[in-house]
Here is the input.
Amino acid sequence: MATAPTIIPENDPRNPVPFPLPRAAGPDQVPSHVPEALIRSTNMLFNPEFLADPYAYFSGMHEKLPPIFYDVGRIGNAWQLTKHEDAFFALRHGEYFSSASSTPFPRDPSDYFYFLPIEIDPPMHRKYRAIVDPLVNPQAVLKWEERIRKLSNDLIDSVIEKGECEFTEDFARPLPVCVFLDLMGLPQDMRDQFVTWVVQLLKTFDPTQMIGTMKVIGDYLKSAIEDKRKNPDEGMISRIVHAAPNGEPLSDKEIFGFVFFVFIAGIDTVYATLNNIWYWLARNPDRRHEMMADPDNINAQVEELLRVFSVTFSGRILKQDLELRGVQMKAGDRITSILPACNYDPDVFPEPRKVDFHRPRKPILAFAGGVHSCMGAHLARLEIKIGLQEWLKRIPEFSVKPGAEIKYPPSAVVGPEPLPLVW
Here is the structure.
């Protein structure tokens, strides 16, 4: 009897053919099924209104734009979701919304690899997520509390007597990145180089420059992977390298795509959140005092600040036709959930721009959601919580340095930089 051929799903790391085709961009690439009335060209990440105050912009989207619209721009045409309910649905319904090739990073079609597990749909996604979950689940991250608290105080020690600091470089980046490097099993003395690489990758929209930076990062990670093969340790890279789910070791390409994704995902997002929070704290001394006067409410404070200062977006591709909020979308359409705008949805969060530390608990989308919720969410919450506790204990009074011009650079990770503070 003939053996049935193995059918490899399109969204499978063993499939050498990337799915879907490269993203379309520009007004001449709008599909015929998109109503003209829903087409916009916000050019959001480069829009002067957005760059002046992105969170005012996110909030204003609910008044100025349809809840679902089709954005035409230089970094790719896509449907945009701004309602909490719609994004919540998209993040939790993989039967409609695929994560395949949903990240913006270019790869060689002749040597294609998927970023794991973010670009893999269920049920295969669980295979990869289960490898690293034991290192980042709520119980596991608690072992980092002492390290995070000591590191926070060491960083404060280095600046407190100066009466000023550049918060990004002196606290916001080193705090989460140092913890992340320990978690990964990577050398601390390369911290600044790693940050430079990731910033270069995430803050450029030039495919040629992205490809060059990805090669530099990839070459380093290949050497790190080989080192972990020979010298296993307790870090995440070693765990990925030596994983064998269901007794089957991962392929070289699976390992590379997994390590690459975790590397870039772990270095740039928490610092932006910290920058946003401290910028707000520096301008709102009364709210700082409120937080310090109610230390037992720290978890709710962190959650509300994460809602107000979400920093990322979530991309998907439709696997089948779908009507959402009366809008007809077709298989192959790209979808972006603008998570910060969704967290300002007035139908879910009344007075959404108000920072309310006693707001009734509702699910926020700061870390996306569903099976692809951020792997590092629990660790990020702990870092923010401890960072706030230790900083406000030792530097309770601070402000933005007089004359400083605070800017938000165009980036898929939203945060002000630099952030000079004085006390």
